[in-house]
Every structure is written in structure tokens, then in C-alpha cells.
Design goal:
By secondary structure, the chain is of the alpha+beta class. The chain is built from 21 helices and 51 strands. Strand 39 and strand 40 form a beta hairpin.
Length: about 850
């Protein structure tokens, strides 16, 4: 159900009143309800409805939508201009129904229907008619009253006998009057009458959906595919109830045997407990599961339903285009479960997957191999991936639920075949399965599913936080923008689930929407994107000056640079002359708070704007091959930048116009400079630090002259330095790792100390962060500080320097192991964060892409898939 059109669940709750004795009425709702009704809500208990609304977190979150606010405003204005008590008394003493009516081309409006034959009710309505500005109109010999609320809003009213009609639209009122006077009124709404007899009057609220009208209804808010709703039945009855965290619905779907509806194909099939949740990632957006009992039985029932609908011949002609006997081949291997799901996305497009289970693994493998493209086969994490050769095999055989799958890739995992349209996305889902990030390991999902009967032929699940972003591309502009503005506040709408157990002419329906606080320290895969080549180096987070969020830069083995949004959208790619050396830095050349990227390759110094264009004067061809990353200095934070590039034994200093800086006095070193020049400042004094291949440590002033000298050469020093600031520069210390595993502590004036942070564990990789020494030895990770030291381990050797950050006033550190193909994240207590390790075949960067309370890790796999994980 779309978000906008779920609002009827809350509209009735906005009306205030008190419960009274059940009023008497001779008119039945089906006698006056217009045939172009989309949905109807019947309120049974005012007091309970009001209490449920005030206590329901789900309804509270849904009430943020503008459509709800508009209705509330409409009703509030009506009460202000009339006698509020009279209007409320009229409603609270009546049978109350609220409906949504087609009132013109792609126009829908609400209609309030009150049934009450008490004389007091008529007097109350007459009292309401005394409001200032009321106009009397006529339609088909009956009176309609128009009340002007303001420049944009009118209220229309009608009363005859025990019927009271109120709407914000005249056409909606006229449709009800026409239906009331129709000689065939009972026959026209007989289906509604029949299903209404099955309602639970003890439920606070009954809702009836006219499914035939829903494809057009949903079409008014975007490019939504909703024809399947009309194929399910004619009317759906839902008895609604609300608890603090759940909106609960049970009811009946009406699909008479005299007509063709899809549930009829399921009615004779066995429904078992669902097993496929072990395939479905926890970050699912939508999951449609079918328990089919027996594939042969399902196919026969499906074809019988098509024959009843008059479309069997068309279906058979489509099947005839497939390879001979393919239907019987698949029927020989598929067992009792099949379905589709969405998980992950790139550029606001959801990745689609399908699955079915099988009886015999060897037979399934051989059968599918005969249907595969012989030109494609690939291995991944112990699985063989192939590609189906026949076009549209699944949708032609098994219907529109598989319409997204034209020529999918597939793999076999245990007793399931898993299919996906994108190769990279299929691998990412396999990573989730192998790393146990699936619904069968999710307490949140299991708790939800256990609230419903379980045995059903159809189950549809929405992971709402992942599903909502996928709707932006299909909704109209206004609703898409509203959804964007509400996305953060709707994150706690965690799940929606619907189960259907089919019978011959009616199906039993159970449904629930659950509000749930986001689970802390729970990692999910947020998106993945396929690069044009295999990634090289590490992803890097960069600030986006337009939205103050973070973007991701990554280069591939063909030296192509990518800038990618926090949502996985590729902004641009740019071909470079070689691999980037070191990290990308950002500067504000024009001092207008717009940032540019600075980096160097072996032969050139580059400055690129955020659109991927070269800044004037760049790239600069270097005088010799670069031997280390460019150092970027922002002296005194005045945005007077210097770009210092090591080229062999020389340091070349450039300004932001790409010109050599005058007055730079650096003298040629005895050997190549192998570290990025780093600028440190303490109490107004500063130094530029860099290291040569023979172990000489330079400490330079702004002119490139040696400010302090360290006489000792330390050849084993590694090339990154950290400053442990003291009261002054002279009392500060430079910290660096070494090839021997010792940590060197260097005073600018020349004193050098070397020590092991742990004598039993020399430091292979070392960083100094916020007073903490973080280092690795083989597969072990150590954090040394005065507050909460700890040690942890990965499955194999740590491959690169760990990373650390502070988020929500909590310390986190993470490490990557290429041998184990994993990243592990630890919190400040040294505990492995829930959901880790995550799969990775390359280095990573971490931070908060949205600059909020969520932590993101971006890494990649060797096939060119960039993967973004989110810790929420």
C-alpha cells in the first residue's frame, strides 16, 4: 500500500467525540456508497479509536503526511465556523463512515457518511446549518449546502431522512445522492454487503478496499505498478486494531469463484512454514514469498485460473517461444518455495533477486546448466555463478511476480537457486548469506513473524527504512519531496508484513505495521555499485560543500577516478595518467566555501573541482617523477595554500595557480624523499616534516630550510608521522612506526627514543588517535590508552593500518584482513560490534556519510563492486 493512501487508517482517528448508544438507522451503507469508492472505513467504537490513536506510535508517525494535516485543517476550520458541539454530537451519535471517492479525472476526495434516524440528530444538523456564509444549492431535486471555510476550502453538506453527507468536494456528495436514488443500488454494491457481513464489529475500525479501483488510484501519485491488486479480488475487508508499536489488521479477501482471480490458483496448495528467510538479507526492502506445495500442482492451478480469465491461449503462445520442454524441466527440480526480494540499491534503483528451492541438487545443477549461457561462468566464494540463456524464462512461466527477471545470473546455495539481474549485486547478497546477515538471524524479524499465523501461501514483507528510498523515483514530485523530508522521522517504521492463506472464494489476510527503535550497533549493507574496472587503493570520504554530507572517491586499475554520492550515485568518472599516490586532499582555492580536490600521480599534480573539471593551471607536469604524496598546507588557516610535491631528492612547492612558489629554499637531499610532507603547528610555531629513503628526518620551516636537526638517521622509520602536542613545539613529540615494530618518539630538537608498545607484539601497523596508540601484530589488534585498553583479533593478518573515529561520543576502531576477506569493527570496550565481521576484499574508509549518528564503512570486492555498510 502506498504511503499517501495509507492515510485513511489515521483520518478517522482525527475526529473527536464520545461513545453513545448505538443509533438506529434504516439506511444501509451499501445503498448510498458511490460505486467509484476506493476505500471505506467504518468506525465501531469512538472511545476506543481515540484511545488507540493517542497511544499508537505507528499512527503518530503516519500522521506527519501532508494529506493527514490537510484533512485535519479542513475539519478544524469547519468546526470553527459552525457550532463545534453540534457537529461533534451529530457524529458521535451516528453510524460513521469515511470514504475516498473518485470525483473527476484523477481526482479523489473524502466523503463522510453519517447514518442516524434520531430526531435529535436532525435538530443538531439544522443547528449546524445556521453557520454564517452557508449557501443552499440543488442537485437532482435535493438540497446541498455549501459552507465557505476560507479561500481554498469549502465544505458541502446534505441531509435526507437518516442520511447525512459531508465532504470537501461537491462531486463526491452528488455521487452519493445518485447512488441513493439508483434503482439498482443494492445489486451494484452487493459484494460489499456480503463481505461486510463478515466484519468483526468488536474491532474499533473496519476498512474495506475496492481493489478494482486501486490501480488507477495509485497511478495518481506516481508510476506504480498496481494491476496485481485488481487481480487479487474485488473487496478486501480489514479489521483494524492498534497497540503502542503495532498497527494490526486481520480480514478477508473476496474473490468469487465465478470470476478469475490469482488467489484461486493457490487455494488447493499446501502452505508450510517458511524456510526461505535464511536467504533474505536483513536490509531487505521488499520480499514476496510463495509457498506452492508442489510446482506441478501450482502450474495446473495457475493455468486453470488463466483459462477462466480468457488468457490461457496467450500464455501458451508465450511459453512456445521458450526452449522445448523447459517448463517440464523446471517442474522436475522446483520444490515448494519461490519468491522475489529487493535488497540494496544503486542510484535509487533497487536490486532485484529471485529464488526457488529444489528437490535434488545434482539434477538442479545439470538442468540449469543446460539452460545457461555457455559463454559465461565465474567462481565466487566457493560458488559457481552462471547466466540463464532463455529470455524472460521466469515471468513467462510463473507470472508477473517475476517480471523484473529477463536474463538473470544465478548460483546454487545449499537447497536453493538464487537469481539476480546484476552480477555484482548477486555476489553481495551471497556475502550476506555467508556472513549470516539474514532474516533467520534477526530477532527483530523473527519476533514480527511469530505474531502472525505463519502458514500461508503468500507472504509480503517490507523493510520500510530500505523500501522508502526506492519509491522516490516512481512517486510524483510533490510526494517524493515530502517523503525525502520525512525520511529520517520515518526510520522507526521498521516493518510491514502481510500474509494470505487462500481458499476457494475468499482468502484469510493477516497484516501488521511495526514501529521499532533502530537497533544500535547493527550493521547492514546500505548499497553497492559496480565500477567499470577493478578498484585500486582505498576508498576515501570527501566533504560535499553543497549539502555538507560526505561523498566517496575511488580509483580503479585503469586509473579512472570516480566521485560517488553517499547514496551510491556515480557523479562522474575521470581518466588520469596513473594511480593516485596517497590520499586526496581538499582545499578552498577561491575562498567561497567551495572545495576542490588535490592529489598527485607519478608525473602530474592535479587540482579538480567537484564536477570533475580541471582547475585552471592544472594539471602541472612535474619536473621529475614523484616519490611520495603531495603535502597540502593551509598556513594559519588563511586558505593561502601551498602544494609541496616530493620528486626524488627534491621538494617542489606550488601555489594554487600551479606556479612555483618564490623564496622556497629547500636543498637537494642525499636520497629520495619517500614520505608525504606533513605540516604541524603548536602555539604559533610550525614545522614541515618529511623522510628520505636513507632515514634522514627533515624538519623544515615555511621557506624549506631545516628548522631542527635530528643527527641520527633512522632507516627503519615508516612514512607517516603523528604529533603528540605539548605546551610548545619544542615540548611536543613526533610519533612514527618502524619496520622492526618499535614506536619512535622524536623530539623536534633531536632527542630520539624507540620502544615497544608491547614487547611480545611488535607493531606492524601503528596509528596515534585521540591519545590512543592503536597497532597490529599479525591478526591481533591492540588499543593502548589510560582509559580502556583492549586487544582483539581477526581471522588472518591485518593488511593495512587500522582506522579510528569518534561517533556519538563513542570510540570505534576497525581493521581489514585481505587473507580473511573481512573488516571488523570494535567499540571502545573492545567488543566486536553486532553484525561484524563484514565481507571485504579491499581496504576501506569509515565515517558518517550523512553527518548524523550513523557510521558508514565503504569497501569493495575484487570484481569491481563498491559496497557501503551502515551501522545504525
Amino acid at each position: 500500500m502506498s504511503l499517501k493512501h495509507s492515510y485513511f487508517l489515521a483520518l478517522t482517528l482525527l475526529l473527536l467525540g464520545a461513545c453513545r448508544e448505538s443509533p438506529k438507522s434504516e439506511t444501509q451503507i451499501q445503498e448510498v456508497l458511490p460505486l467509484n469508492t476506493v476505500w471505506l472505513a467504518e468506525i465501531n467504537d469512538w472511545e476506543e479509536v481515540i484511545a488507540k490513536k493517542s497511544n499508537s506510535r505507528v499512527l503518530d508517525l503516519l500522521s506527519q503526511f501532508e494529506s493527514l494535516k490537510n484533512f485535519n485543517s479542513h475539519w478544524h476550520n469547519a468546526a470553527e465556523l459552525s457550532n463545534r458541539d453540534s457537529l461533534q454530537d451529530l457524529m458521535s451519535s451516528s453510524h460513521v463512515y469515511l470514504a475516498e471517492i473518485l470525483s473527476g479525472a484523477d481526482r479523489y476526495n473524502w466523503l463522510l457518511i453519517l447514518l442516524n434516524d434520531e430526531a435529535s440528530a436532525e435538530r443538531l444538523f439544522q443547528n449546524f446549518q445556521k453557520a454564517d456564509g452557508l449557501q443552499s444549492l440543488e442537485y437532482s431535486g435535493e438540497k446541498i449546502y455549501q459552507l465557505k471555510l476560507n479561500e481554498k476550502q469549502d465544505l458541502f453538506l446534505h441531509h435526507s431522512n437518516d442520511l447525512y453527507l459531508i465532504s470537501g468536494d461537491r462531486i463526491a456528495l452528488e455521487a452519493a445522492i445518485r447512488q441513493k436514488n439508483s434503482p439498482t443500488q443494492v445489486a451494484e454494491n452487493d459484494r460489499l454487503r456480503q463481505i461486510r457481513e463478515s466484519r468483526n464489529p468488536r474491532s474499533p475500525l473496519n476498512v474495506y478496499l475496492n481493489l478494482k479501483s486501486w490501480p488507477d488510484y495509485l497511478g495518481t501519485i506516481g508510476k506504480l505498478k498496481a494491476q496485481f491488486l485488481a487481480d487479487m479480488g474485488d473487496w478486501l475487508l480489514l479489521d483494524l486494531d492498534a497497540e503502542k508499536h503495532d498497527l494490526i489488521a486481520t480480514g478477508l479477501l473476496n474473490h468469487p469463484e465465478t470470476e478469475a482471480y490469482f488467489p484461486q490458483a493457490l487455494a488447493s496448495l499446501r502452505s508450510d512454514q517458511i524456510q526461505a528467510q535464511k536467504l533474505i538479507p536483513v536490509n531487505l526492502a521488499r520480499w514476496v514469498h510463495m509457498s506452492i506445495g508442489n510446482i506441478g500442482q501450482y502450474q495446473r492451478a495457475f493455468e486453470a485460473q488463466l483459462e477462466k480469465a480468457g488468457s490461457l491461449k496467450d500464455h501458451q503462445e508465450i511459453i512456445a517461444k521458450l526452449p522445448a520442454n523447459v517448463s517440464s524441466q523446471l517442474a522436475g527440480i522446483i520444490d515448494s518455495e519461490m519468491g522475489t526480494f529487493q535488497a540494496g540499491r544503486a542510484q535509487n534503483q533497487a536490486y532485484e533477486f529471485a529464488y526457488f528451492n529444489f528437490r535434488d541438487a545434482e539434477l538442479a545443477e545439470k538442468t540449469l546448466e543446460t539452460l545457461s549461457d555457455s559463454n559465461f561462468i565465474e567462481g565466487y566464494r566457493g560458488h559457481v555463478i552462471r547466466k540463464l540463456s532463455p529470455m524472460n524464462l521466469l515471468p513467462r512461466l510463473y507470472g508477473s511476480v517475476f517480471e523484473a527477471f529477463h536474463q538473470p545470473y544465478y548460483l546454487i546455495h545449499k537447497d536453493y537457486v538464487l537469481l539476480g539481474n546484476q552480477l555484482a549485486a548477486l555476489k553481495v547478497v551471497l556475502n550476506d548469506i555467508l556472513d549470516s546477515k539474514t532474516l533467520d538471524r534477526s530477532d527483530s524479524y523473527l519476533n514480527l513473524s511469530n505474531q502472525l499465523p505463519g502458514k500461508a501461501q503468500v507472504q509480503v514483507v517490507y523493510g520500510i527504512p530500505e523500501w522508502l528510498p526506492n519509491q522516490k523515483e516512481v512517486l510524483n514530485k510533490d510526494l517524493s519531496e515530502e517523503l525525502e523530508s520525512l525520511q529520517d522521522s520515518l526510520q522507526n517504521l521498521r516493518w510491514a508484513i502481510v500474509q494470505l492463506k487462500a481458499d476457494k472464494d475468499r482468502s484469510f489476510v493477516s497484516a501488521m505495521i511495526r514501529e521499532e527503535q533502530a537497533i544500535q550497533e547493527k550493521i547492514v549493507r546500505q548499497w553497492s555499485v559496480q565500477l567499470e574496472g577493478q578498484p585500486s587503493g582505498a576508498p576515501q570520504f570527501l566533504r560535499n560543500h553543497n549539502n555538507q554530507k560526505l561523498d566517496i572517491a575511488i580509483q580503479d586499475e585503469d586509473h579512472r577516478l570516480y566521485l560517488i554520492s553517499r547514496k551510491g550515485e556515480v557523479y562522474w568518472t575521470k581518466d588520469l595518467d596513473g594511480p593516485i599516490i596517497g590520499d586526496i586532499r581538499q582545499i578552498d582555492i577561491y575562498r567561497n566555501n567551495k572545495l576542490q580536490m588535490v592529489f598527485n600521480t607519478t608525473n602530474q599534480l592535479w587540482v579538480v573541482d567537484r564536477l570533475g573539471r580541471n582547475v585552471e593551471g592544472f594539471p602541472v607536469k612535474l619536473k621529475a617523477e614523484s616519490t611520495a604524496p603531495v603535502g597540502v598546507f593551509n598556513y594559519d588557516q588563511a586558505r593561502n595554500y601551498r602544494l609541496v610535491v616530493p620528486c626524488g631528492p627534491m621538494l617542489y612547492n606550488y601555489d594554487v595557480e600551479g606556479k612555483a612558489v618564490k623564496g622556497w629554499q629547500f636543498k637537494k637531499a642525499a636520497s629520495d624523499i619517500v614520505s608525504e610532507p606533513q605540516f604541524f603547528s603548536v602555539a604559533g610555531k610550525d614545522i614541515i616534516v618529511c623522510l628520505t629513503a636513507d632515514g634522514k628526518l627533515y624538519q623544515l620551516n615555511r621557506r624549506g630550510e631545516e628548522r631542527f636537526k635530528v643527527e641520527e638517521k633512522i632507516e627503519e622509520l615508516k612514512t607517516s608521522f603523528y604529533l603528540k602536542a605539548g605546551e610548545s613545539l619544542k615540548k611536543s613529540e613526533l610519533i612514527a612506526g618502524s619496520n622492526s615494530g618499535k614506536m619512535y618518539v622524536i623530539n623536534p630538537e633531536g632527542k630520539v627514543d624507540a620502544l615497544y608498545l608491547d614487547r611480545s607484539h611488535p607493531a606492524s601497523h601503528l596509528i596515534y588517535f585521540e591519545g590512543r596508540y592503536i597497532f597490529s601484530d599479525g591478526a591481533q589488534l591492540f588499543v593502548k590508552d589510560d582509559r580502556m585498553p583492549f586487544e582483539a583479533s581477526l581471522e588472518d593478518d591485518i593488511s593495512v593500518k587500522p582506522k579510528a573515529m569518534i561517533l556519538n561520543n563513542r570510540f570505534y576502531t576497525a581493521a581489514f584482513s585481505a587473507g580473511a576477506e573481512e573488516i571488523r569493527l570494535f567499540n571502545e570496550e573492545g567488543n566486536l560490534v553486532d553484525g561484524f565481521p563484514v565481507f571485504a576484499q579491499g581496504p576501506f574508509d569509515m565515517g558518517s556519510l550523512n553527518r548524523d549518528k550513523s557510521l558508514n564503512i565503504v569497501t569493495y570486492s575484487n570484481d569491481g563492486t563498491l559496497i557501503c555498510y551502515r551501522l545504525r
